[in-house]
Amino acid sequence: MKPKKAVGRTNGASTFLLSDKLWLKAVKNRTARVGIMGLGYVGLPLIRTYCAAGFDCLGFDVDSSKIRSLNAGKSYIKHIPSALIKQMVATGRFKSTGDPKRLRECDALIICVPTPLTKNREPDMSYVESTAHLVADHLRRGQLVTLESTTYPGTTRELLQPILESTGLTAERDFFLAYSPEREDPGRKDHSTATIPKLVGGVGPKSSKIAVALYRAAIEQVVPVSSCDVAEAAKILENVYRSVNIAMINELKMLFDRMGVDVWEVVRAAATKPFGFQPFYTGPGLGGHCIPIDPFYLTWKARQYDMTTRFIELAGEINTSMPQYVIYRLAEALNGKKKPINGSKVLVLGLAYKKDVDDIRESPSIELIEMLRKRGAKVDYNDPLIIRTPKQREHNLGMTSKKLTATMLKSYDCVLIATDHTAYDYAWIVRHAKLVVDTRNATEGVAVGRNKIVKA
Ligand SMILES: NC(=O)c1ccc[n+]([C@@H]2O[C@H](COP(=O)([O-])OP(=O)(O)OC[C@H]3O[C@@H](n4cnc5c(N)ncnc54)[C@H](O)[C@@H]3O)[C@@H](O)[C@H]2O)c1
User: Nearest to residue 175, comparing CAs of 332, 15, 400?
Assistant: First the structure.
């Protein structure tokens, strides 16, 4: 990284932005160096945002293939084009490394590592913990560390701070520590990392002030809150809110199906009320790295306070049962054609957990494929964004996306729309399919062949 003339630096290798004053100046002059740890769906757009704001950025990841790819100007996330990475590299302001010794070169270290659940559905803090130890090994005075990973309230104070302070350095005096949740929604066109308001809470007033200044330099609106705990809790609230409301609509869908009422039309009708109602939409089940997982971080934490988070548990129960409901509807639809699932050919459209992204983490499509296979169906899939199924922690489907043609569509007993990618021509799909089970209302605008469509 090319060193700029910096305030508060003693030499090229060690920087000491020890006071908030020096920090604010370094942010203003763009001489503060920003390190992002974890260059995934969250870290990569964030580093792009800091690069665009004129900061020298160092990306750090333990996955060496990602580092190689980025340094060669190649993206591994579909909605972030390689041209953009090339452009960032060409500015000379963006480098990536797997060498933790280089963490010392950064004034700010922003942590964007995974926070999944263990097999027992408890928080798996191993990534945050190992990153915290890595930071501690290289921590130096004047650095700002912020955590962005979604987690339970208390993480920054109770987990991160003690690990960082085990170095003998003290937060607020020697280094600064804050939490700022990532609210990224991959694939969204109307917002980017820079336009989504950013909540920021520090472990103390200096940390808050410095973190707010750093985020304000790259992000349009920064919302300071009084503590890390509030920022952590606000992020979890956002995800619990979605999970609970989606569960409610999913339950109503099952009821309205029995009553012969179309839940999609009902939600659209209710949403015409100009206040007091926000629409949520049903689907084949929750997916992605956030909504199916994050609420359970709070459930786990609540036990320490002798509380049961009943809304979260109930929502989880309903949402995780949705793939079973889809299979039930699909079995009924096939039954109407005098066919059992066993031996039927089913084409699943869409593997990603939501439209127009290439992310299959927690995707209900994977579960649907496994459930169909278990029942004896011959299953294929098509997803324009996922050419073959990657090996995951708990799944290895070993499948390749089939090319869509009119003849191949005709050859399946059922086409199951699991993800409503924009690239699909739904009228064409319905025209050539024998039977379509639609979990996303993707075929809403299709006029011809409606008798072939079953919503699920
Ligand atoms: N994906 C989203 O849409 C989204 C949205 C909001 C919040 N979040 C939260 O952001 C966090 C990151 O999610 P993500 O989707 O970017 O995950 P990701 O898996 O796409 O990326 C995480 C990256 O961290 C790297 N990593 C793991 N351990 C590391 C370490 N010790 N040091 C450096 N790098 C390390 C991994 O190799 C990976 O590249 C999670 O807490 C998630 O809940 C994600």
Answer: 15
pLDDT digits (tens, 9 = 90+) for 118-159: 988 899 999 999 999 999 999 999 999 999 999 999 999 999
Rounded Cα distance between 132 and 230, Å, is 21
Question: Which of 60, 130, 182 is the best mutation target for the ligand 1 pocket, counting ligand atoms within 8 Å of the beta carbon and taking the most?
Answer: 182
| Distance from Cα 191 to the centre of ligand 1, integer Å | 20
Strands 222-224 and 453-455, how do they pair? unpaired
Q: Are 293 and 116 in contact (CB under 8 A)?
A: yes
Question: Which residue, by CA, sits nearest to atom 13 of ligand 1?
Answer: 114
Using N-to-C axis directions, what is the helix angle for 295-303 and 228-259, rounded to 10°?
110
Neighbour-count burial of 111, counting CB atoms closer than 10 A to its CB (0-12 exposed, 13-18 middle, 19+ buried): buried
pLDDT digits (tens, 9 = 90+) for 277-324: 999 999 999 988 888 899 999 999 999 999 999 999 999 999 999 999
Q: How far is the CA of 327 from the centre of ligand 1 (A)?
A: 32
